[in-house]
Design goal:
The chain is an alpha/beta fold. The protein has 11 helices and 10 strands. Strands 1, 2, 5, 6, 7, 8, 9 and 10 form an 8-stranded mixed sheet that branches. Helix 10 links the parallel strand 9 and strand 10.
């Protein structure tokens, strides 16, 4: 039976997904045939396909803003002990002066991808029967595209991973093959259906949002914060749509779905990469997956069933 691991988009919250994946693969011994990722999920799937969890943990617990942004559109500062995020107007103005199409640039992330997802890893995956697929939004054709490691060169695949992670207009726009690409989450934040279309019969899905809406947005104070609120609104509804369609497709094709949501709101801005928080989220993901698994086991223990 073909098994798949699907990881949603979620920026820095990918650290939580890493903890969940660590528990599933190391403690539960799950062996997946297919890995499908969107945005931050696409950054993780190559390591997971090779079982390189320690290396992935090092990546997700050491990365910071400088590792992602070559021109950071955000300013993060502490006010009364609380982190406040605002737009760096000087950096965004500099991007416009230089004729760029986005508020910020994430060229450092492209360098990081090539450094952390090496040609050796790419070759090793292609020698296996495992498939690694990343999700992109083609803004030129208005289509969602899924790119398999087996269909492209190493350089092209690195581009596709980068494009899938680019949360425009705050990060770079991937321009390739006469098309413009952005974050796969704009169209397929939780690509369950794609895993089913590729033949998966059991799918573990890591969703980097809470199952029930838990937080109301603060009123927007400027055009940038309003834009962030609008994007969050759209992505939340894309996520719900993806999950609903995925469940319907799974029921129709007799596919087992195991969903892992975050138990609490981890952050209100997943484009801020805080090493200390991400270490905590990795541990939290591991503990949450373990807790969920133990609860399920207790539900079905014969010794706990009353006579």
């Amino acid at each position: 039976m073909k098994k798949a691991l699907v990881i949603s988009g979620g920026g820095s919250k990918g650290a939580f997904a890493g903890g969940v994946a660590q528990y599933l693969m190391k403690e539960k011994g799950k062996d997946y045939d297919l890995f499908v990722g969107t945005s931050t999920g696409s950054l993780m799937v190559s390591h997971l396909a090779l079982g390189m969890l320690d290396e992935l943990k090092e990546l997700y617990t050491s990365v910071n803003q400088q590792a992602i942004f070559s021109n950071n559109p955000f300013i993060v500062k502490k006010v009364d002990g609380v982190k406040v995020i605002s737009i760096n107007h000087l950096n965004t103005l500099w991007n416009f002066i230089n004729g760029r199409k986005t508020f910020g640039e994430s060229k450092n992330l492209r360098k990081l991808i090539k450094h952390k997802i090496t040609r050796k890893m790419y070759d090793a995956i292609r020698k296996t029967e495992k498939d690694v697929v990343v999700t992109l939004s083609n803004l030129t054709t208005n289509h969602i595209e899924y790119k398999s490691v087996h269909d492209f060169s190493y350089e092209d695949f690195c581009d596709w991973i980068w494009g899938s992670c680019n949360y425009i207009p705050f990060m770079s726009l991937l321009e390739k093959n006469n098309c413009q690409y952005g974050d796969g989450g704009f169209g397929s934040l939780v690509p369950i259906k794609e895993a089913i279309e590729r033949g998966a019969k059991e799918i573990d899905v890591i969703i980097l949002e809470t199952e029930v809406h838990q937080l109301n947005k603060l009123p927007a104070k400027n055009p940038f914060s309003l834009m962030m609120n609008v994007f969050d609104f759209m992505l939340e509804h894309v996520e719900r749509h993806n999950i609903t369609i995925g469940k319907l497709s799974a029921n129709h094709r007799d596919v087992q779905l195991n969903l892992y949501y975050t138990p609490i709101v981890l952050t209100t801005n997943s484009l801020v990469f805080d090493k200390v928080l991400m270490k905590k989220w990795w541990k939290a993901g591991y503990k949450h997956a373990k807790s969920k698994d133990e609860n399920l086991m207790n539900d079905f223990r014969p010794d706990l069933i009353e006579e």
